[in-house]
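Researcher: I'd like a candidate sequence for this fold, 695 residues long. If you have to choose between options at a position, lean toward the conservative one.
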């Protein structure tokens, strides 16, 4: 599936999900998802700064300590005492129950004194009180009181709530424009505690008269906590008087939390807008981008709700919109998948197709990968494979694709002439020499066709062989180059091309910046044992892959293992080179490999298999850990004898801190008989990593 088709598919799935999710969140399943709105509001409202009602207190008559017959008398005594104390307002949130035919003359006198008295609507006191308003608080389904009605229809007339009626009767203030018939409710937050005065102390005069001077006093039948009527968003249990006092304080201080008409419209519009944004911008982005966009959006929504609540005292519920946005975000993350894994899978499939000679499927898989050095080198190899199959037009298509994705090659800069360094081999332009060995030199070169750096290994094949030997060596050289070129592994340097020019046989390979492990065999520069074990485990896995492809290295040693400390990567170089010019001639001793790393069967010129490379890897590990090879001699004859007949000293005796388990691994890797060694590189890699755990 192409990227464009995948994006369209993802958007369609996200749109369908968003539509269904919105219908459920605001429809049949609203009761489940409204908890998100409530949770968010409760957490914000509980921390909203709260000012208590000024110069106010509560007087509670405990009905448990007063019999029903004398309750009305006690209540009357409280009201009389308050009138005598010259309080400003008396608010009866819970008047005593009165019979329908009971006489009210005494109460009329008490309630018509200087202090204004307020009573609940539909109580008999409402007829003689200064003003009346309804007292009715209904909690949400979770038991929390968040909403208090401002108006109620009574006998065809809109009646205000008791806090609103009291505020209307306050000559010292004008009710906020928010508190009008257009707003049918205000919202609770927390309760700023008011002082309390016992009814008995009030009646008996056991109080400071200045406390009641010009005060607002709430009279009820609900002692604090034990007679709490509701649970507030802040988690506080409050009585009817405490709730009324809190709401009255909000109204008179112009701190009422309301939901204007425009907020109600926005609460319905916000989820749809967020869903549209999520559907348009998320399905075609990377997981990291989706996470960042989601975080920014959620933080913004939280900030908007907080600012509206704390500055404008406006409740805007964004809990459910956040849930919708998060739901679409999670779906988008699942839809886009893991891009790194998809790229790795595409590159692996392409490499497998290329190794199998299926070039068109390989091209299709590689095109799914973003531009990178690895993709460029492998695509270059693919273009050469098309040329070998006599498909120049497809090779040109590969190169054109590389130019579009990796940039158009620039002209090659003019090179300085170096003594003894050819300016060009084949089509490759030499830049500098980066290494020299017994078999020849290694150059950093550039392929002008795609402006790609390559490592060019040049072997003086015509100087080493003559006549029939040269023909055989040349045949073997190309055959081994072809075998090495089939290898596509992250820990093996890729072979691009091979050819001859100016009497030199050259191999064009992937250029990898790094350090040969030979530099870490100095006893003063040894790697940590755990790092050395891990690098050798990577080498063993790469060898296992090569052996399964029928390719044997024949010259595993620290100098042929390129390590990049910055990235922690390792690459094996010179695959198959040891045999490219080997015709069992005395001249070729320099190309058979390095004697101190050779296996016994390699020294005996026997038929080799992958076990020989594992022996050489064991020698390499020993040297990386100890700083010297396990077999040392002053001449080749003695060295061969030691390799074929002597066991090296245990590595744990050569370096402190080496666990005995490594001795066992090295003993198996350096076994004289191939069948006594590890069965394959993968098995050796597992053993090395097990040792690394305890190093």
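Model: Candidate sequence:
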């Amino acid at each position: 599936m192409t990227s464009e088709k995948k994006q369209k598919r993802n958007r369609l799935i996200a749109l369908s999900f968003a539509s269904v999710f919105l219908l459920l969140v605001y429809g049949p399943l609203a009761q489940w998802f409204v908890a998100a709105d409530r949770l968010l509001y409760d957490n914000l409202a509980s921390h909203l700064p709260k000012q208590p009602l000024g110069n106010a207190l509560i007087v509670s008559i405990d009905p448990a300590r007063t019999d029903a017959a004398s309750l009305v008398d006690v209540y009357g005594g409280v009201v009389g005492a308050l009138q005598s104390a010259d309080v400003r307002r008396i608010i009866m949130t819970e008047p005593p129950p009165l019979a329908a035919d009971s006489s009210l003359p005494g109460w009329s006198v008490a309630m018509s004194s200087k202090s204004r008295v307020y009573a609940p609507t539909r109580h008999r006191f409402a007829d003689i009180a200064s003003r009346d308003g309804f007292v009715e608080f209904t909690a949400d389904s979770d038991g929390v009181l968040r909403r208090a009605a401002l108006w109620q229809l009574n006998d065809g007339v809109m009646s205000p709530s008791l806090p609103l009626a009291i505020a209307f009767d306050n000559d010292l203030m004008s009710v906020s424009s928010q508190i009008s018939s257009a707003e049918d409710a205000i919202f609770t937050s927390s309760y700023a505690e008011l002082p309390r005065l016992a009814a008995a102390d009030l009646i008996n005069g056991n109080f400071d008269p200045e406390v009641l001077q010009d005060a607002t006093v709430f009279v009820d039948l609900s002692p604090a906590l034990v007679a709490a009527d509701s649970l507030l968003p802040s988690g506080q249990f409050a009585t009817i008087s405490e709730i009324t006092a809190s709401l009255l304080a909000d109204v008179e201080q112009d701190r009422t939390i309301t939901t204007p008409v425009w907020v109600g419209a926005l609460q319905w519009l916000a989820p749809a807008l967020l869903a549209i944004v999520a559907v348009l911008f998320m399905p075609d982005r990377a997981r990291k981008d989706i996470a960042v966009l989601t975080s920014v959006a959620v933080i913004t929504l939280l900030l908007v709700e907080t600012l509206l609540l704390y500055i404008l005292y406006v409740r805007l519920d964004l809990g459910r919109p956040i849930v919708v946005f998060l739901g679409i975000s999670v779906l988008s993350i699942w839809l886009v998948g893991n891009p790194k894994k998809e790229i790795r899978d595409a590159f692996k499939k392409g490499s497998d197709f290329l190794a199998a000679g299926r070039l068109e499927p390989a091209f299709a898989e590689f095109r799914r990968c973003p531009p990178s050095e690895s993709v460029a080198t492998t695509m270059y190899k693919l273009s050469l494979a098309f040329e070998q199959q006599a498909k120049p037009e497809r090779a040109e298509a590969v190169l054109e694709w590389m130019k579009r994705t990796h940039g158009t090659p620039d002209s090659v800069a003019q090179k300085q002439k170096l003594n003894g360094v050819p300016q060009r081999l084949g089509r490759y332009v030499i830049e500098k020499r980066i290494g020299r060995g017994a078999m020849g030199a290694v150059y950093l070169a550039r392929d002008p066709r795609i402006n790609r750096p390559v490592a060019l290994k040049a072997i003086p094949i015509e100087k080493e062989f003559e006549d029939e030997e040269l023909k055989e060596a040349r045949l073997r050289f190309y055959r081994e180059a072809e075998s090495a070129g089939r290898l596509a592994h992250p820990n093996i340097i890729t072979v691009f091309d091979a050819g001859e020019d100016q009497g030199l046989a050259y191999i064009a390979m992937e250029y990898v910046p790094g350090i040969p492990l030979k530099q870490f065999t100095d006893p003063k520069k040894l790697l940590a044992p755990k790092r050395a074990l891990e690098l050798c485990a990577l080498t063993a896995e790469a060898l296992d892959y090569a052996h399964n492809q029928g390719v044997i290295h024949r010259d595993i040693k620290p100098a042929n293992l390129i390590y990049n400390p910055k990235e922690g990567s390792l690459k094996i170089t010179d695959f198959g080179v040891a045999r490219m010019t080997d015709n069992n001639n005395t001249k070729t001793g320099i190309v058979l490999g390095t004697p101190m790393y050779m296996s016994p069967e390699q020294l005996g010129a026997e038929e080799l298999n992958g076990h020989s490379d594992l022996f050489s890897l064991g020698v390499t590990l020993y040297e990386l850990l100890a700083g010297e090879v396990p077999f040392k001699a002053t001449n080749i004859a003695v060295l061969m004898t030691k390799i074929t007949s002597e066991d090296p000293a245990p590595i744990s005796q050569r370096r402190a801190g080496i666990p005995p388990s490594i001795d066992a691994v090295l003993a198996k890797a350096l076994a004289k008989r191939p069948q006594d060694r590890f069965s394959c590189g993968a098995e050796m890699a597992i053993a090395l990593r097990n040792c690394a755990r305890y190093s």
